[in-house]
Amino acid sequence: MGSAVAVYLSEEMSRLQTPFRGLILESAFTSYKDAAAINLPALGWVVHLVWAPNMNSLSLISNTRSCLFEYHSKVDEWVPYKQGEALFSTSDSPAGCKQWVSDDKARHDDPMPQAEQNALKDWISRRRLP
What InterPro entries does this protein's entry cite (predicted)? Predict the structure, then answer.
């Protein structure tokens, strides 16, 4: 659920003309409703009523002007890989500061693999001001 909050805040700050320098998403879903439909199908309608529509990352990420690093595993058992891909392709991050990283071994609750950690460190180092 942290990615949804991060996308929401990034969109808000972009709208206020003070975008975050970087947005890091890991195993992110497109919306609470989509996540519930997969993991709790019988309760999906409740999620739609309880959580505000502004927590729809897929609709918000196109308004985000932050640089984006997104990591998603192809074997994530909670959040489908397709949802991560959808967020990344919908994002309108500035040219040259958007990076997608994936693997095919880590499950949802596993730590980020070392190769992906290294990619994140490199991405962060490129965002630093001179």
Answer: AB_hydrolase_fold
Return the CATH number at 66.
3.40.50.1820
27-68: per-residue pLDDT in tens? 999 987 777 777 776 766 666 666 656 679 999 999 999 999
Which residues span the domain enclosing 101? 2-127
Q: How many domains does the chain have?
A: 1
Q: Which amino acid is at 106?
A: A
Q: How far apart are CA 22 and CA 114, in angstroms?
A: 20
What's the whole-model pTM score? 0.86
Residue 118 carries which side chain, given as an amino acid letter?
Answer: N
